[in-house]
Amino acid sequence: MNDILSTAKTWLTDFFDPAVKKEIQHLIENDPEELKDRFYKNMEFGTGGMRGIMGAGTNRINKYTLGKSTQGLSNYLHKVYPGEVLKVVIAYDCRHNSDTLARTVAEVFSANKIKVYLFSELRTTPELSFAVRHLGCHAGVVLTASHNPPEYNGYKVYWTDGGQIVPPQDKEIIGEINRLTIEDVKFEADETYIELIDKEVDAAFIKASVKNGSYNAPGKDDFSIVFTSLHGTSITAIPEVLERAGYKKVTIIEEQAKPDGDFPTVVSPNPEEPEALTLAMKKAEEIGADMVVGTDPDSDRLGIAVRNLEGDMELLNGNQTMLLMTKFLLDQHKKNGFRGNEFIASTIVSTPMMQDLAATYGVECKVSLTGFKWIAKMIVDFPDQHFIGGGEESFGFMVGDFVRDKDAVTSTLLACEIGAMAKAGGSSFYEELINCYVDFGFYKEKLVSLTKKGISGAEEIRQMMQDYKENPVKSLDGSEVITVDDYNTSTSTDLRSGKVTAIDLPKSNVLIYTTADGTRMAARPSGTEPKIKFYFSVNAKLNKAGDFKKVNEALDQKLSRILQELNLD
């Protein structure tokens, strides 16, 4: 505690703002536990950036911790591009302080003689990714904490290709940051280096989104959509994209249309959570809509609900929407003739169906670690191959490569195209999904997330992962585990033969167990939230669409039994 107190007192010097000093002094005198949590470590700049609770302290998001990261990034850019006129673009979302923190970041860049394009108002993350290449920038930054609670904010860094930073840039930037103290940060702005941007980039992004997401689907006049931005940034883009693509029956949830960092109408602004779409689902039932679309605050994730076989609105999971959107893109490319160099992409914790889908169409499915930065890296690493689309189970999808991150704007349009086309042909989005299960096998996934906050929570998560390694799962629902993939050691072990093979991916704290019947369980601590996540996949053959309900129920029961035996129910 003495070290923590000593570190905290360094924030009482005249370098820090009076309000910050007052806040720290209050904690020293009145709240030692909170003081400990704020100073027991530095807010880490991870391999994609920073995300955490806002407030004063080294383990919080504030102008000083973000300033230090920006100074380190500035030093790195000057080192990598000596003599060049450096340019960066900055966007921010609806969260509290995002605008002022974005301004601080811009000022630090400018103090380091780096040209800054700063969006004049909140914008989506996919537009930021697009803007990096559109404006010919060396890097980009977006201030967002995605779908985290209101007290969070974050800082994501993008490289020249428009994708989030990956090796070797990530570690090298972290090295530059770690060599600094907060007192090394240049906070004095040079306004001649800061330029506000908005409409010109907006127009280019929306045009590109419509071009990449529209397939001239019939039936648009008869396809009814309920859209909610969940108080986030997508209100700046999705309504216009849908209008330009020809959709006229779009109902916006007005109570959630105004950007608001408190997210007052939801428990969590996360479209993965059914509760977040309650108002939209209610409206869809009132007006008989065909589809509900909701996006997270920075508009990289989207949740889709459609009418099931009973005519009720049902929220699909990320694996389901990813599968159907990828199949649709493959069908469209197939009409024009495959060139033989196409690939789709997914992640190690997403549905194995993506690989079965690719095999059927004769294209490659590249599988990466969790996170779209790895999918964006594939596009850079394989310039002679053509990326069609891909996604991950956490409600993210990317259409083509004009944006190099999850893109809920273009993906929303694509989902509407699929739904409208299906309805015009006498089918539905849901029925088309069932047809996929008939054609490629019925895989069903489930995610279980356990939240473990604070110092003790981090230790609990670490211990849980250690326990799974030292006492591995032997079977799941009576099916013997035959393969253990440990991405922390980059090894895949065949338990039947004892053969160990190398996993050709960067190291990551993920364990995956696969059983003889294809059941799969993955354990992974979240990289952005105080959570440990468990991903389950079960499968069965679906001979015909008419058997869907029966097989679906059987897979649900199988998942329930597995969760019960692992004490995760």
What does this structure look like?
By secondary structure, this protein is α/β, with parallel strands linked by helices. It has four domains: 41-197, 3-Layer(aba) Sandwich (Alpha-D-Glucose-1,6-Bisphosphate, Chain A, domain 3); 204-314, Alpha-D-Glucose-1,6-Bisphosphate, Chain A, domain 3 (3-Layer(aba) Sandwich); 318-409 and 416-440, Alpha-D-Glucose-1,6-Bisphosphate, Chain A, domain 3 (3-Layer(aba) Sandwich), CATH 3.40.120; 444-565, 2-Layer Sandwich (TATA-Binding Protein). Helices cover 38% and strands 22% of the residues. The chain contains 17 helices and 23 strands. The strands form four sheets. Strands 16, 17, 18, 19, 20, 21, 22 and 23 form an eight-stranded antiparallel beta sheet that branches. A six-stranded mixed beta sheet has the order 1-5-4-2-3-6, sandwiched between helices. The relative contact order is 0.09. The model has no long low-confidence stretch (mean pLDDT 96).
Distance between the termini: 38 Å
Number of helices: 17
Low-pLDDT residue intervals, each spanning 5 or more residues: none
CATH architecture of the largest domain: 3-Layer(aba) Sandwich
Cofactor: Mg(2+)
GO molecular function, one term: phosphopentomutase activity
Keywords: Isomerase, Magnesium, Metal-binding, Phosphoprotein
Family: Belongs to the phosphohexose mutase family.
Topology:
Blueprint: H1 2-9, H2 18-30, H3 32-39, E1 49-53, H4 63-80, E2 87-92, H5 98-111, E3 115-119, H6 125-134, E4 139-143, E5 152-158, H7 169-178, E6 194-197, H8 199-213, E7 225-228, H9 238-244, E8 250-252, H10 278-287, E9 291-295, E10 302-307, E11 313-315, H11 318-336, E12 342-347, H12 353-361, E13 364-368, H13 372-381, E14 386-392, E15 396-399, H14 408-424, H15 429-440, E16 442-451, H16 454-470, E17 475-476, E18 479-486, E19 491-494, E20 500-502, E21 511-515, E22 520-525, E23 531-540, H17 548-565
Parallel strand pairs: 2-3, 2-4, 3-6, 7-8, 7-9, 12-13, 12-14
Antiparallel strand pairs: 1-5, 4-5, 9-10, 10-11, 14-15, 16-23, 17-18, 18-19, 18-21, 19-20, 21-22, 22-23
